[in-house]
Amino acid sequence: MLKRSNKQKSSFFKPFLLQLEDRITPTAFSEPIVLASTNGVLDITLLGHQSNQLLETSTGPSTTALTNTGGFYTYQWTLNAGQAKQNGVNVAATTGDSYPGPTLFANRGDTIRITLQNDLPDSIPLAPNVNTAFKLASTMAPGPQPINNHMHGLHVSPGGASDNVLLEIPQSMAFVYEYVIPQSQPDGLFWIHNHRHEFTSDQTYRGLASMLIIGNAASNINQISAIPAANQRVMALQTQTLAHTTNPSIPTYLTTPMANGSAITVAGLPNPTQYLQYFQGGSVQTPELGTTGGVPTAFLKQYSVNGLVNPTITVGQNQTEVWSFANISAVTNFQIQLYDQSSALVSGKLFQIAQDGNALVNPVAGNGLIIAPGSRYSFAITAPSISGNTYTIKANDIQSGTSNANPPYNISLVTLIANSSPGSPTNITTSTILTSSSNLPFEDLSTQTVTTTRTVTFSSEVANPNAGGSIAGGTGNAFEITGESFPNNLIFQPRLNTVEEWTLYNYSNQPHPFHIHVNDFQVMSIFAPTEPSGAVQFYPGNVTTPYQYGLDVINVPPALFANKVITGLTVTSGASGHRIY
After folding, report:
1. I want to staple 411 with a disulfide (CB 3.0 to 4.6 A). Which of 310, 317, 395, 550 is the partner?
2. 2-216 fold
3. In the chain, ranges of CATH 2.60.40.420 domains
4. 136: helix, coil or strand?
5. How far apart are alpha carbons 73 and 96 in whole angstroms?
6. What three-state secondary structure class fits 253?
7. With 80 as the cut, is the pLDDT of residue 107 above it?
């Protein structure tokens, strides 16, 4: 139940600096601290608040610096029961505060208990009417912002004190969540984030999000079981739009959020030199870097892996690694490709092996895949065979279907470097049959009786349903599902233990990640016509054979694409009901 938070309202906890030594070398890969269950229980307290963080920031084409950055919303965490781990080693830490948040770890059968406290300041409830990327100040008045929590991808009860996204926690209040992980829960990488409608995008973008691992992040696939744990990594994809403190568009509720009108300091450091701006659906194409101190004087949109800009990983020659990505950004679609040190495209070294906690039937070549917001992809990647050579995963930030079909993949996400030692390769190809020793066998819904069919359309106020292709540009933010916007949205009420077929259409100018809580769905078919010249091909062609694995996120491309999915509504044992959102 809701209870009044007993922390001191007038103070903010200083950010966690345990990882500072690692982050002094900005290009060294590091993972967030892990809070793991012990004796079947992980019990933590998360205090959502505004904080400053030492953020690795681009200061030039190939240089970065740790910069005191304001405007984050992060979790100050306290470990009540469990074990903290840093890079696989037990550590004595029992509290902290970082961006991104701590990674939670549990096994099936465990209980995760989260006391979530709301210490957020007032902020804007919806996107401003003006675009701050064009250096215009927002005129919207601040207002109170509630929070809650969603365990994205977990097959747990959606009611009561479990994964109930319909409740809200007002400012200065707290709520105790308890999640019982069922034995049917697949191993995999999942994540947690705020799910209070109208506040989700901004709060998630500002840092109220953490990765969550159940068992093995890459779905415990037998064909990669010989790869050491030290060569299996998790990576949180996020974006930051940054502005120097001299930029007049920074609203005062970010710079002086304390009740007495003061700013937040970081461990005795001076006030921030830059601020995280409100999330932008569009990208700032050209970084505008200042000449004083190497910080942006206008706006810079950057992309990070675990809060780092293009971190490096050094391994033996031909060593195969497993990289599991969680896109915990608010709106960014990362289309990825693999390049070597001479910027040549590399084939045959990067294969997707799992998605959303489910092993694929066969690996899929990684080049060109689009990691949508909320989705998780696991890859097998093999290092170069020559010492000193590199492979870099680079990305294209897809904003609409009219993006260049041959985009410049100029966003370097993470780089793999081969050293002089021999590594241990694992043979993975598109013909490899993937199996999981722990996850339950896949239930093919295509052979079951469909009781109900539904049509769902996604649109926005700038969309044109009669367009021959995707619509370029547009600044509207009134998004609709089947003609209605929240809170007047259409409500579906499927019956338990039935199978429904949903056909999804997207008439907006943006790709739309479609997600269902509690249960995965099965993709039955995808109609993917050839887009006009110069447009992104979201899928290489039509899909006519049902996927033989489940998903909890599917990316519905912009304008006049259609995906057909079947959704199974058999709830997990002990659940009292089911909701689809």
Report:
1. 395
2. Immunoglobulin-like (2.60.40)
3. 2-216, 445-568
4. coil
5. 14
6. helix
7. yes
Distance CA 111, CA 98 (A): 24
Structure tokens at 575: 């659940």
Q: Quick: pLDDT tens for 191-240.
A: 999 999 878 888 999 999 999 999 999 999 999 999 999 999 999 999 99
First-to-final CA distance of the chain: 23
What's at 365, amino acid-wise? Answer: A
Q: Is the pLDDT of residue 241 over 50?
A: yes
Residue 57 or residue 77, greater confidence: 77
Taking the C-alpha atoms of residue 444 and residue 217, their distance in angstroms, rounded to an integer, is 23
| DSSP state, residue 442 | P
CA distance 525 to 543: 5
Q: What is the DSSP letter of 160?
A: T
Angle at 299 between CA 414 and CA 51, to 5 degrees: 75
Distances (CA, A) of 34 to 31, 94, 103, 260, 442: 8, 11, 5, 35, 30
The structure tokens 């370097």 sit at: 412
Beta carbons of 505 and 562 less than 8 angstroms apart: yes
Residues 264, 266, 272, CA angle at the centre, nearest 5°? 65
Q: What is the pLDDT of residue 294?
A: 38
Q: Which long-range contacts link 124-128 to residues 24+ away (Cβ below 8 Å)?
A: 124/202, 124/251, 124/253, 124/278, 125/198, 125/199, 126/198, 126/477, 127/201, 127/202, 127/278, 127/477, 128/278
CATH assignment of 445-568, among 3.60.15.10, 3.40.50.1820, 3.40.50.150, 2.60.40.420: 2.60.40.420
**502 φ, ψ (degrees, to nearest 5):** -115, 135
Query: Rounded to an integer, what distance in angstroms lies between the CA atom of residue 437 and that of residue 352?
Result: 18
Tens-place pLDDT, residues 62-106: 778 888 999 999 999 999 999 999 988 999 999 999 999 999 999
pLDDT surpasses 80 at 339: yes
Q: Note whether 544 and 523 are within 8 A (CB).
A: no
Give the span between the Cα atoms of 243 and 246, in whole angstroms: 8
What is the token pair recorded at 382?
Answer: 């093999």
Coil, strand, or helix at residue 23?
helix
Helix (H, G, I), strand (E, B) or coil at 146: coil
- Sorted by sequence, the CB contacts under 8 Å of residue 286 that are 6+ apart come out as none
Distant-in-sequence, close-in-space partners of 344: CB < 8 Å, separation ≥ 6:
none
Residue 379: is its pLDDT beyond 80?
yes
